[in-house]
Design a protein that fits this description.
With about 240 residues, the chain is an alpha+beta fold. It contains three helices and ten strands.
Length: about 240
């Protein structure tokens, strides 16, 4: 059964200094710490801190003391967020992805070990025959496969599906028997690609969430040329009907 308990706390916090010559002031902050649920040996209870009327998720901890210590660590950042609120919706760069085999994967981190086990890493050309690569994306440079230097049976993406296991059909588990990872080719091949996120602040203890991500593999001008050509071909085809 889920229960909620609360406790008052105080901490001395020194917010990060703004981009001015004025040093940040140290202040004592009062907060309310709430615990959701009871320790049951399997899951740690979650803790939420209310600071100046706004809820912040602290995390999952064994004891309230651990949660209080975490609050003291997080307070400076929380105070900065309160003093300098961000827009409810924004788009910002969150990182980059470096690609060396013209392919990326989207997957849950819990599947990394299982997917890595499918690789023949003792073979120098193991990625060419990898079951994780879209069909035809690789070829052996020594010509032993008869297709050196050309792509055959090319597919832009590949849905990777876990083998059926009893857990996947247990309603108590979050696993599914559907597609569990996606492999896709990246534009014209290798490179370093920026990742942008649409971020929405839902308020309360839900807070900010990534609503969508965007990665661009081909330059805007090349995409514009392709769109222009597609319209031209469609117009030509329509005129010939």
């Amino acid at each position: 059964m889920s229960t909620t308990t609360t406790a008052k706390g105080k901490a001395i916090a020194k917010p990060q200094a703004a981009a001015t010559n004025n040093p940040a002031k140290t202040e004592t902050v009062t907060y309310t710490l709430s615990r959701l649920g009871e320790p049951d040996g399997k899951f740690k209870p979650s803790y939420i801190a209310e600071v100046e009327g706004k809820n912040f998720l602290v995390g999952q901890f064994d004891t309230a003391e651990d949660a209080h210590n975490a609050v003291k660590t997080y307070l400076p950042e929380w105070l900065n967020q309160l003093a300098n609120p961000k827009p409810v919706y924004r788009v910002e760069k969150i990182g980059t992805v470096t690609v060396d085999v013209g392919t990326i994967m989207i997957l849950d981190p819990c599947r990394i070990n299982a997917l890595a086990a499918t690789q023949k890493q003792d073979d120098p050309g193991y990625m060419c025959d990898s079951p994780l690569m879209p069909v035809g994306m690789g070829f052996k440079m020594d010509g032993s496969d008869g297709k050196t230097g050309k792509m055959v049976e090319n597919e832009l993406s590949k849905q990777i599906i876990d083998p059926p296991t009893p857990d996947k059909f247990d309603p108590k588990n979050y696993g599914t028997s559907g597609g569990n990872a996606l492999s896709l080719s990246t534009g014209f091949g290798d490179g370093e690609y920026e990742v942008f996120a649409e971020i929405v602040d839902f308020g309360g203890m839900i807070g900010e969430r990534i609503a969508a991500i965007h990665m661009q593999f081909i330059a805007d001008e090349d995409i514009a040329k392709a769109k222009k050509l597609a319209k031209k071909l469609a117009k030509t085809a329509a005129a010939g009907e």
